[in-house]
Amino acid sequence: MFITDLRKNFYDVVANQRVALLVAADIDALCACKILQALFHCDQIQYTLVPVTGWQDLSTAFLEHKEQFRYFVLINCGANVDLLEMLQPDDDSIFFICDTHRPVDVVNVYNDTQIKLLIKQDDDLGVPAYDDIFRDDEDGGDSGNESDEGSEPSGKRRRFDEGAIERRIERQRAKREWEARRREILFDYEQYEYHGTSAAMIFFELAWVLTKDTKDMLWWAIIGLTDQWVHDKITHMKYVSDIATMQRHVSRHNHRNEDEENSLSIDCMRISFEYDLRLTLYHHWSLYESICNSYYTACSFKLWTLKGQKKLQEFLADMGLPLRQVKQKFNSMDITIKENLRDVIEESSNKYGMKDIRIQTFGVHFGFKNRFLASDMVHAAAALLESTEKEQNDTTDNFIKALDSLSRNNLDCLKAGIDLAKKKLIAIQQTVASCICTNLILSQGPFLYCYLMEGTPDVKLFSKPLALTLLCKYLLKAFVHSTRNKRCKLLPLIMAAPKDVEKGTVIVVGIPPDSETSDKKNFFGRAFEKAAESTSSRTLHDHFDTSIIELKTEDRSKFLDALITLLS
Amino acid sequence: MDPSEVEFLAEKEFVKIIPNFSLDKIYLIGGDLGPFNPGLPVDVPVWLALNLKQRQKCRILPLEWMDVEKLEEIRELERKEDAFTPAPSPYYMELTKLLLNHASDNIPKADEIRTLVKDIWDTRIAKLRLSADSFIRQQEAHAQLDNLTLMEINTIREFLLDSLNCMYKLRSNLQPGSTKGQFADY
């Protein structure tokens, strides 16, 4: 069931209890976790933090902890599947689920006792009405009547039987119709997968209601929202309206603290609204590198072609920026150039067809040196979360490191994250360039398909879901810009990359078509399931996003064929 | 004595806070505290104030001497005089550090206060060093320094005592008949 009053029905309930926090491995979940941890620290609530990367992890974690804990808080996992059936908990375990995955499973919505959903109901949920899906079983009543009627004397029985048989046939027909309608409703409801309001924002609102919200928590909520935008999980409209909500909070905090005479210490955190450039990490890199490696500019200029490179040089010349300045670290650029940079770039980029080079976002500023944009933090934390630097993939270590990088006092962690993010972006750009130049993207009819061979440089980076999704998004955009075929521009993309060489599996990701007004609804989840069933391929639907699966390399071709037949 | 021990003693000083919760009077071994009512100022020791601030249950009000003009006056006075002037508080250095690290958003002009307190500290320590230097050089028997705080005494304590011990050993070795080329060992 949905919880409307977060404070009364969630926070006060767990106030004196021990809680198990099961957190999924994405940045929004990390931010939500940080906010919740800060609240728990204030009120000295004991908790255990368990990072989970997939359904199997979730089940194992639950089994380990079900003896000791009664209350489980699940962040960004668990809403889109029938949780009670999967975990088989005892009757007194209570689950608080704060998840952005939609659609929410109907059993989770209509269960009144054990599952509490911390989800805002004004999100366009579209949950089917209770009576359309559930109804009391009347079969027992029918068979009981039949056996009673059997003992009647024969004359009366015959007349009675006719009426009874007709009624029975009527009931069965109505039941069949109802079941057909139910299947249809459920199919429509569960066909597309999409995302709702950020979990970090929901916990920030809880903190606000408790008047325990600090600037740190506000910053984490902003990072959670920006993560949804960077990884393309929400529509642009939703992003803009959520930014407006956050802007209200930011002005409230700034207004409370700033005063002409009593100005704040330089070490205090200042969050400001920025209408900044869409160049990833440009404050921590050189402007030139940032333009080459941000997908927006790289795709608009088509930087994998010679013509594109020339266009970039023209662009820089048009703005009057000398190459030497532009290739330097951003902080060491001439101050005269930096002052009007944003306006100058916006003007020039309009001429080159890039209309939205600027995006609304927030930046934070503390100490004398430290200035970060929300998207910088998202990229840094994502790089740390999925870092493949160490040979043994210790997910818990990476999770803790990524979690630490979000705090203000772990700046070296954050700097390490930014370096990893730079490497990741360069790798993505190079892979995109090579895929487009060697025409690795094939049109399979209803979708585009690309397979990364094992020998591709940096392919290990792309065995992780977040990195592969980012690569997918950039590749699709690049393809749309480089192809002449009008029909291909509207197709979705499926990408496969080797995941585990010893076990011989590949990770497969599907993303919806790239368009300005897309509603980011992804139908590949159900499509993958059906295709796997029909060809009995060995697949593992372990990830919380149903559009990301693991597949045995040998079954790849028959799986694809099944998908093509399914979707055409 | 360890500087952290001095800081521990400094945390017993009282500071005014404005809590946002309510609690009846609490009876501790060191004294009674409270009662706490939201929005009404109450005096509590610094250790409790910092704990409540970190749990976001109160707002700390700046101490009366933590004011830019007052500290500027004290700094000027300190620079003029040769002897030590009375310090703003017997634990001024520790309190500044604690309060400005944890509650700088409640204290106006925190950066300037930090700079001023550091200036005062530097001046006083320079005077202390000068006086210790002249004490040892002129081999005085006793000295009197007023208005020193525990933290300042603590910085010079070990060095001064050690050097006086050395001097004593050197002096006693010069007495005839005590040694024949034997050096005191330490």
UniProtKB/TrEMBL annotation, chain A:
<feature type="region of interest" description="Disordered">
    <location>
        <begin position="135"/>
        <end position="161"/>
    </location>
</feature>
<comment type="similarity">
    <text>Belongs to the CDC45 family.</text>
</comment>
<dbReference type="Pfam" id="PF02724">
    <property type="entry name" value="CDC45"/>
</dbReference>
<dbReference type="GO" id="GO:0003743">
    <property type="term" value="F:translation initiation factor activity"/>
</dbReference>
<dbReference type="GO" id="GO:0000727">
    <property type="term" value="P:double-strand break repair via break-induced replication"/>
</dbReference>
<protein>
    <submittedName>
        <fullName>DNA replication initiation factor cdc45</fullName>
    </submittedName>
</protein>
<keyword id="KW-0396">Initiation factor</keyword>
<keyword id="KW-0235">DNA replication</keyword>
<dbReference type="GO" id="GO:1902977">
    <property type="term" value="P:mitotic DNA replication preinitiation complex assembly"/>
</dbReference>
<dbReference type="GO" id="GO:0006270">
    <property type="term" value="P:DNA replication initiation"/>
</dbReference>
<dbReference type="GO" id="GO:0031261">
    <property type="term" value="C:DNA replication preinitiation complex"/>
</dbReference>
<dbReference type="GO" id="GO:0003697">
    <property type="term" value="F:single-stranded DNA binding"/>
</dbReference>
<keyword id="KW-0539">Nucleus</keyword>
<feature type="compositionally biased region" description="Acidic residues">
    <location>
        <begin position="135"/>
        <end position="151"/>
    </location>
</feature>
<dbReference type="InterPro" id="IPR003874">
    <property type="entry name" value="CDC45"/>
</dbReference>
<dbReference type="GO" id="GO:0003682">
    <property type="term" value="F:chromatin binding"/>
</dbReference>
<keyword id="KW-0648">Protein biosynthesis</keyword>
<keyword id="KW-0131">Cell cycle</keyword>
<dbReference type="GO" id="GO:0003688">
    <property type="term" value="F:DNA replication origin binding"/>
</dbReference>
From TrEMBL, chain B:
<feature type="domain" description="GINS subunit">
    <location>
        <begin position="65"/>
        <end position="167"/>
    </location>
</feature>
<dbReference type="GO" id="GO:0000727">
    <property type="term" value="P:double-strand break repair via break-induced replication"/>
</dbReference>
<dbReference type="Pfam" id="PF05916">
    <property type="entry name" value="Sld5"/>
</dbReference>
<protein>
    <recommendedName>
        <fullName>DNA replication complex GINS protein PSF2</fullName>
    </recommendedName>
</protein>
<feature type="domain" description="DNA replication complex GINS protein PSF2 N-terminal">
    <location>
        <begin position="2"/>
        <end position="61"/>
    </location>
</feature>
<dbReference type="GO" id="GO:0006260">
    <property type="term" value="P:DNA replication"/>
</dbReference>
<dbReference type="GO" id="GO:0000811">
    <property type="term" value="C:GINS complex"/>
</dbReference>
<dbReference type="Pfam" id="PF25005">
    <property type="entry name" value="PSF2_N"/>
</dbReference>
<dbReference type="GO" id="GO:0071162">
    <property type="term" value="C:CMG complex"/>
</dbReference>
<comment type="similarity">
    <text>Belongs to the GINS2/PSF2 family.</text>
</comment>
<dbReference type="InterPro" id="IPR021151">
    <property type="entry name" value="GINS_A"/>
</dbReference>
<dbReference type="InterPro" id="IPR056784">
    <property type="entry name" value="PSF2_N"/>
</dbReference>
<comment type="subunit">
    <text>Component of the GINS complex.</text>
</comment>
<dbReference type="InterPro" id="IPR036224">
    <property type="entry name" value="GINS_bundle-like_dom_sf"/>
</dbReference>
<dbReference type="InterPro" id="IPR007257">
    <property type="entry name" value="GINS_Psf2"/>
</dbReference>
<keyword id="KW-0539">Nucleus</keyword>
<comment type="function">
    <text>Required for correct functioning of the GINS complex, a complex that plays an essential role in the initiation of DNA replication, and progression of DNA replication forks. GINS complex is a core component of CDC45-MCM-GINS (CMG) helicase, the molecular machine that unwinds template DNA during replication, and around which the replisome is built.</text>
</comment>
<keyword id="KW-0235">DNA replication</keyword>
